[in-house]
Amino acid sequence: MTQVRDSGVWGTGERSNRLTVKPSDRRRRGVLPAAFCLLLSFAHASAPTTPPATLPPAQEQRAVAIQRNLRCPLCDTGESIAESRSDISIKMRESVREQIVDGRSDSEIYTFFSVRYGNFVLLDPPKTGRNLLLWGAPLLALGGGGVALWAFLRRKGTAAAPAGAAQDAEPYDSYLDQVRRDTGGGQG
Amino acid sequence: MLNLISFTSSALGSLGQIALLGALAFTLAGLTLAVVGGIRADARVVEAARRATWAVFALVTLGILVLMVALLKDDFTVRYVAEHSMRSSPTWIKVTSLWGALEGSILLWAWLLAGFAFILSLTLRRDALRPWALGTMFVSLLFFVGLCATVASPFTPVSALVADGNGPNPALQNHWMMAVHPVLLYLGFVGLSVPFAYAVAALVTGRLSDHWVVVTRRWTLVAWTFLTAAIVAGGWWSYETLGWGGYWAWDPVENASFIPWLLTTAFLHSIQIQEKRGLMRSWNVWLIVLAYSSTVLGTFLNRSGIVQSVHAFAGGPVGPVFLGFLAFLLIVGIGLAAWRAPALRDEAEVPAPVSREGAFLAGNWLFLVFAFMVLLGTLFPTFVEAVQGRRDASVGPAFYNAFAIPLGLGLMLLMGVGPLLPWRRADGQSLMRALVPLLASGVGAAVIAFAFGIRAPGVLATVALAAYNIVGLFLLTARAARAAGGLGKTLQAQPRRYGAYTAHIGLAVLALGLAFSGAYRQDAQATLNLRAATPTTLLREQLALTGLRQEDRGFGTSAIASVSIDGKPFEARLNTYVQAPGTLFPAPAVRYGALGDTYLVVTSIDPKGQWASIRLIESPLVSWIWWGTLIICLGAGLTLVSPARPQARTVPTGLAPATD
Amino acid sequence: MTNPAPSKPNPTPVWRRVLPPLIAAALVGVLGYTLLSPAKNVTTGGPLIGKAAPAFTLTSLDGVPVSLEGLKGRPVVLNFWASWCGPCREEAPLFRELGSQQTADGAAIIGILFQETKEQNARDFIKEYALAYPNLRDPGINTGVDYGVSGIPETVFIDRAGVVQFMDRGGLTRERLNAGLEKIGVKGI
Question: What CATH number is attached to the domain comprising C102?
Answer without folding.
Answer: 3.40.30.10
